[in-house]
Amino acid sequence: MVLTVIVVLAAALAAAVHAYIFVLETLRWEHPSTRRVFGTTAEQASQSKQLAANQGVYNLLLGVAAIAGVVALMLGATDAGLAVVLTATGIMLGAAVYLVASDRSKARAALVQGAFPLVAVVAAIVALASRAALVATAS
Q1: Could you give the CA distance from residue 2 to residue 10 in angstroms, rounded to a whole number?
Q2: Which range of residues forms the domain containing residue 102?
Q3: What 8-state DSSP symbol labels residue 27?
Q4: Contacts 24+ apart (CB under 8 A), 70-77
Q5: I need a labelling partner for 66 at 20 to 30 A (CA). Which of 12, 31, 59, 79 fits?
Q6: For the chain, how many structural domains are there in total?
Q7: What is the tens place of the pLDDT at every residue in 71-99?
């Protein structure tokens, strides 16, 4: 039960972060404050607007998937919920790892993007392993 609560909270927070990233990349890409966050000039932002919007939608959909897993967990579909959360947050975590591996100066951004997914992934794996152990001992 405690693990499920951790998974739900971490996945929901990961989804919220990715929804915020969607806003920055899709709705506010050319705004000066967003350009400062991403280190782009007005010209670069204008030229990359479509790419950024596509990336933003991708981030939003990952967040939606994480929330779908949370809803499944809250409705009692534990195995399905854990699988969906693990998939969505695993992808988020993989992207954060790639970000920092490809550019060490992006470590802070990778931490923001990947911290909650990391917690969700670890908790979901432990929860699934615990459920598997219970099933094995019950057989």
Answers
A1: 12
A2: 2-138
A3: I
A4: 70/7, 70/8, 70/11, 70/12, 70/15, 73/4, 73/7, 73/8, 74/8
A5: 31
A6: 1
A7: 999 999 999 999 999 999 999 999 999 99
Task: Give whole-number Cα distances, 50 to 30, 44, 76, 123, in Å.
Answer: 11, 11, 39, 36
Q: Which residues contact 100 (CB under 8 A, 6 or more apart)?
A: 106, 107, 110
pLDDT digit string, tens, across residues 99-138: 999 999 999 999 999 999 999 999 999 999 998 887 777 7
For residue 35, give both structure tokens: 């350009």
Q: 3-state SS of the chain: helix, strand, coil percent to 5?
A: 90, 0, 10
What is the spatial distance between Cα 99 and Cα 44, in angstroms, rounded to a whole number? Answer: 20
Which residue in 57, 45, 71, 70 sits closest to 18, CA to CA?
57
Q: Please, what is the end-to-end C-alpha distance for the chain in angstroms?
A: 22
pLDDT tens-digit series, residues 9-42: 999 999 999 999 999 999 999 999 999 999 999 9
Here the tokens at position 86 are 């693990």
